[in-house]
Amino acid sequence: MTAMSTGAGSIGAAEITRRLAEICGPSFARFAGAADEVAGRLARWVAVPGGPRAAAEVLRLAARHDLSVVPRGAGTKIDWGAVPARVDIMLDTGRLAGVGHQPAASPVVDVGAGTPLRAVQATLERAGRRLALDPPSPGATLGGVLAADESGPLRHRYGTACEQLVGLRWLNADGGLVSAGRSAAELSGATPPVGLDLGRLLCGSQGGLGVLVSATLRAQALPASQVWVSRPVWSPLEVHDLVRAVFAADLDPAAVELDLPATGSPPRPVVAPAAGATSGPSGRPMSAAEASARANHPAMAGRRPDPLPVRGSAGELTVLLEGGRSEVAERADRLLAVLGGAASVAPYAPAWWRRYPFAPGDTALRVEAPAKDLHAAVYALRDAAGTPLSVRGSAGVGVVHAALPGAFPVDRVAGILAAVRGVLLARRGRCVVVAAPAAVRREVDVWGEAAVIPRLREAKEHLDPHRRLAPGRLPGGL
Questions:
Q1: Is the pTM above the cut of 0.70?
Q2: How far, in Å, CA of 184 to CA of 30, rounded?
Q3: Per-residue pLDDT tens for 95-150?
Q4: Crossing angle, helix 236-248 and helix 325-339, to 10 degrees?
Q5: Furthest-apart CA atoms within the chain: distance in Å
Q6: Alpha helices in 201-287 (DSSP H)
Q7: pLDDT tens digits, one per residue of 137-171
Q8: Closest CA to 456 of 469, 443, 442
Q9: 125 close to 222: Cβ distance less than 8 angstroms
Q10: What is the 3-state secondary structure (H, E, C) of 144-161?
């Protein structure tokens, strides 16, 4: 790499590497490799700071030399969203980890942003507690879940991770520590947290507003009993009627999930590309080593195609009930009566539970609509595509994911998006492209209508006026 001209004068790439190594330690700063990319955009350096102070120093170094910074957690969703304009330093949050020590009865818990969520749950479980968070991405960090605004089935009762926040701490583009709400140590009694409006804008910002350091969230007691009540379903309208019946029965479900497979569609094998093949989000030729690195990247976990359904097979509506053993059993009996004779009870979740319906190479969509209008959005999606598509997600709150096969040409994907967004606009819903092949990303608006753009622009000007944090990742190209 050649020397670069910056506001601080001319400085070589090797010198940037040396300074990052001074901040993070020799083993935690390096030139980026084949798998160090964000939605297809390769990084130049990777830095793994050992704590908030070191992370702040990395940001101050980037500010002095006008370098962009994009945070990365476990990398499970690093291919989501819009392609950043540039990625100079990938700031890995893996060492910004840990679970704060609170009394066993504490209603909240402090968690470092780089902490894997499953490690948090294992720690809390020993005290009979949990975070009511169950995102589908295996190995996801808490910071990654917040940055992508990812949620799972438990969102139905407890809300998203962002909605469960009590406090949040992050670094702005100049390395300044910003706090909103309260930490567990500061929280007292029933006093409500204050000042979280700005912090909550970071949820879903994919690193474009700040580098998350830690969060304080509500902790729940582990339920004594869980059962999953399932019933086969054949159409979005049938799902709509059943969900209404479940709500009318006052059963207090913890989750109401839907799986509608693309029955009879051809299988989508997942194979590592051959050497020199054009693949991956960037659309550039890859070596065999790069292809292997991508195939084993954390972002690929949990996205293998499910077994091919038999033509004409049904989908499934599944309701999770939680609580005391006797009252859960009583509610399960009532739910069986509501759902009808084809329903069944199991002490475990179905195989598709907490799994995305899309595979690597697909165009992955997130469809959001009022629950009462979700069936209209799914019908519009299938009508526009001209074929059944895999749809899965939280029917009870009107948030599902869908998969458009990677073989669909770009103009077909664009037409499907336009049709679905037109239907959703009248129903106060939206359709977002979560992940997609490079050709699709270049030609379509991944965000669609984004009413939050004015607020995001104001927050960006406040927290990152020079647009060094994940530039271009936010709606509106912010």
A1: yes
A2: 35
A3: 999 998 777 778 999 999 999 999 999 999 999 999 999 999 989 999 999 999 99
A4: 140
A5: 75
A6: 236-248
A7: 989 999 999 999 999 999 999 999 999 999 999 99
A8: 469
A9: yes
A10: HHHHHCCCCCCHHHHCCC
